[in-house]
Write a structure and sequence with these properties.
The structure holds two protein chains of two kinds. Chain A is α+β, with helices and mostly antiparallel strands. Helices cover 42% and strands 16% of the residues of chain A. Chain B folds into two domains: 1-51 and 111-130, Alpha-Beta Plaits, CATH 3.30.70; 54-95, Alpha-Beta Plaits (2-Layer Sandwich), CATH 3.30.70.20. In chain B, 13% of the residues lie in helices and 22% in strands. Classes of the chains: A alpha+beta, B alpha+beta. Strand 13 of chain A pairs antiparallel with strand 2 (28-29) of chain B.
Amino acid sequence: MLQDDTLANVLYVDISKKRFWIEKRQDLFEKYIGGAGVAIQLLHEECPKGVDPLGPENPIIFAVGPLTALFPLASKTVAMFKSPHTGNLGESHCGGRSAIAIRMAGYGAIVIKGASDIPLYLAIHDNQIYFRDASSLWGIGSCITVGRIIRENEPAAGLRTIMRIGTAGEKLVSYACVTTETYRHFGRLGLGAVFGSKKLKAVVISGKRSLPVSDGKLYQKVYDEIYQAAIGSPAMKKYHHLGTAENVLPLNEFGGLPTRNLQQAKFEGAFEISGETFAEHYLGRRLACSHCPVGCIHIAALREPYGDEPYFYKTSMISYDFEPIYALGSMLGGSDPKGVLRLMERIEVWGLDAMSTGVVLAWATEAQERGAISEKETMGIKLGWGDYTAYMEAVRLLIEQPNEFYQALSRGVEHAASLYGGEDYALAFGGNEMPGYHTGPGAHIGVLIGARHSHLDNAGYSVDQKTLAKKKPTSPEELAEALLAEERWRQVLASLVVCFFARGIYQPDVVSKALHLAGFDIAPEALYRIGEEIHREKYRFKTREGFSLDKLRLPKRIFETSSPLGKLDEKFIRGAIEHVKKILFE
Amino acid sequence: MKLSVVDTERCVGCQSCMFACSRRQGEAGIARTCIGVRSVGGMERGFVVIVCRACDDPPCAKVCPTGALKPRRGGGVRVDITKCTGCGYCRDACPIGCVFWDDEINKPMICVHCGYCAQFCPHGVLRLEKREKVGHASG
């Protein structure tokens, strides 16, 4: 890496002792690039074995990469921590202004340790670090309001990120998220609860600086190539036009859209909650992350009367994407787009992972239908498919946790089902609630073996779609190998912190060329090796914390509901997992 | 020629223009940018684009005590860094906030209307226009 690049600076903040220091860690960045690669090493260093994820020993690590602020679309921040949701590796990625702000403040990574005795928020402006008393922000119901207050109190508008938690994080819901810039999230695996456990309400980061490049002329040329590819590619246009919500209709057409807790994989109300319907009737604005020309963030404008007075309206601006539409729409059997938006808005305000929340509500609805729980547990709420008034009330209660049932819901579907039954239809894999794909075995195996149990680990749904297109079955071994190869390459992208939507643009040769300008000379083949090593390092952490491929629970429901590739076979799935184990551990 | 902010409602806040401005000056990052994009108090309400609008009679030049800022033909100013003492009057004089500051050398940075940023505006917010076409409502 280049000598005068600030990337190697790691900012350590101890919020117990309210002190901070900076260490030069070229060793980590030169070997593991940045992002996920560096974050997993810092997690190994900072997180002792077996710690309570909600205890002060659990660190929060943020990392960005060498291409951040140098090239477009390298705009994600990788967060790592021990997850309070799964008790294992916590990794979550977020865009907004977060990555650019960290890099422009002069850091490649930030490590937050300890826990504060009073609520506080951290303000990191270049090398000035402030511990601000957040006692008067603690308990504010809406994380949007918290953002507004901090915005007024801190400098550097346009050059900063404001990461914050809502009530869900304060109340330690194990799938509470951290929100940045109102609409982007460290969504999965409960970083919000880790913030809450440290009494850390928010982190503001800003900065403005120049970055060195190894060759100024070549830099402009390579920049132009990447930029033109980004604005010209059909994939990127798709994300700009309808956004990820474009996937609703095709997925439903295939018969791969989980519906009513995956009792079906085709939803009769799909059109009403499709990207097309949202764009035509509700789309109010599109936004982009910093240094990404695409602008895939879609914001609906929902105008509604208050009802207590004539002509008294409010207009809410609500971010929507495919995953929240699946989790809070089809999964809950809801085809009323206004209902879906209202629930999305509440979840945004309170700071929950929309995907986990939807799957939890779907399980609770079915459990109540089957009599596993009654209105005694739900405190009088009758959950019914598509009943958004009931769902909003239930979400409020699972955050407040007034009884044991809601306490159980606040820890996820696997935990709730372990207490109340209904494990066969509790749709979590590796402890994390399922994403919106029932496309075939690849989707589920991908999430099961993925290091963070996310559909983005290895895109199993995409392997299924390819199998469907070539009309030839894929063997368990082939499937396992395809998923592992994809996940290993994605470790490179996640270490560069390149958005996965741009994976078609950042091919190995382009990555190698771009990295050269940041002073990293890594040949394309060597990139694959680094990806493999980072993946192994993540699994080393997972194994250390008790994860085992032998212990994975497969909810029966995925075998009951037919997928586009027919009914799934448990033996096939176990076979693929066995093969993954062989490759990773033998 | 003059850089024109055609329609801020089209802005998605990607800030590609800010990076372009720095790159045009041979640097990566955003320290050298003479254009700024920030939200109108929350992204839900959209963005403001802050860049010199090439005033005919620029107040920043009027208050410069050393003659470092000279009105430019076609609007706006030219900055002669060698004459500048870094007093900052120009920055205070611009009500739009278009005088950016180079903290390293303590001198102003003002858009020269080269239009490079407009080439990197993917959604039609910025345009380089002939002076006479510029309407009063722009920017």
